## 1
Amino acid sequence: MTVWVIYFFLMEVLFKTTLGKRMMSIKTVSDNKEEPVTIVRYFLRSLVKCIPMINIILLFNKNHKGLHDYIASTVVIER
């Protein structure tokens, strides 16, 4: 689990994307889209994303945001 947190965190901080996001042509932005995603937000996303079964919330909200997006005030959009 530690490896996943480090992978997601470093990829998003250094390259602003992960390999999967790059292949799908999507990116992470701030909820209000005006301010950049901070290192703290990237860390929160990475940490929460690694909790097993937590993204089931994606099925039950109209914006299809994961819990990690709600906690970090981020959203994933197409490039």
Note: Residues 2-15 form the longest helix (14 residues).
## 2
Amino acid sequence: MIFVYLLYSYFNVSLCQQYVKKINLKVILIPVHEQQYVFEPFYRGENKKLKIRGLGLGLPFSKMLAKAQKGDLVLKESNEQGTTFTIIVEELN
């Protein structure tokens, strides 16, 4: 529930049946052959393993939080313009 409250307060939305938010990351391109692995714990893309610090837990943890709130986080598309993730969260009761 904390995740949903933070989400609602961060994006300043009112409660509804289902809230869908698209998150577009303009600088990140995820190659097609890596897209199926982005939500795997500890997975780091080939282009960023040695260039960007991290453990590969950000997206898996975010997806886990969304699912804990009866929602989901999905990779919608990734191209030269950027990568789009969609988060879906159900209404709070």
Note: Residues 2-90 form a domain with the Heat Shock Protein 90 fold (CATH 3.30.565.10).
## 3
Amino acid sequence: MNKEKNTERAKEIFGAYADKDTVYFTSDGQAFLSDSDCRNHAKNLVDKQTMSLERIDVMPSTDSEDDETDLDEKEEGLTEAQIEAQKKEDRQKLEALYAEVIGEEANPDKSDTVLKTAITKKQNADKAKASADADKA
């Protein structure tokens, strides 16, 4: 499989499908938005190998820009104390989600983007494992 070519195609696909975080490829270069569709197609190929690419691995991060935009929208009409309280509450929610998904306490020195990336990677790995387990059954 040509990872470089698939990476370029994944960038195009992620650009067109903002709600998708994973693209799946078969050995013949076909791209799929569904793991099951990809695996079903691979069953008909001589080389049944598949690969997946994650948005966070191939696209530049825009989390900080999005966070700033969201915060600007929230900030209108709020006092500095309210803004700081909202930031603190948002961070606490993120750390709680991190602890739930990752299974350990979040390092307070890590940025929100780092925590979000770790959460997304773990959730995607869990999905892939569940899918592989289901295929074995």
Note: Residues 3-60 form one domain.
## 4
Amino acid sequence: MLDLLWNFFKMVDKTFDILNSVNIWGKVLKGPITLRNKRTIKENLKVATDYFYNLYMPDKVTLVVNSRRKVPIIGFLLDRHSMISIAEELVWSEEPPLEFLLGRNFSQDHIDTFFSR
């Protein structure tokens, strides 16, 4: 049971590191999305996608994405899809307008924080 929990936390952590990159000097998954780390980013997000799509509820019958508790998993999957689409267009295209992408800049937390004062 602890192995399953550990794997879940590790997958969430890796995915969050990629989607919430904040530092242009960060290394590997905590760094910006660039052309140089395209393969690593895509591979890690593919593994995370497969993991989340095949995650079962404790009854070992129902997939989480088909359950009533699917919202956080679907959110991760949508964020992953959005980030890859944005990176394909702005960083990984033939003539990219940007050198790198920081996922943190797409967070709505900044807006929530600003208007909550």
Note: The chain has one domain: 2-110.
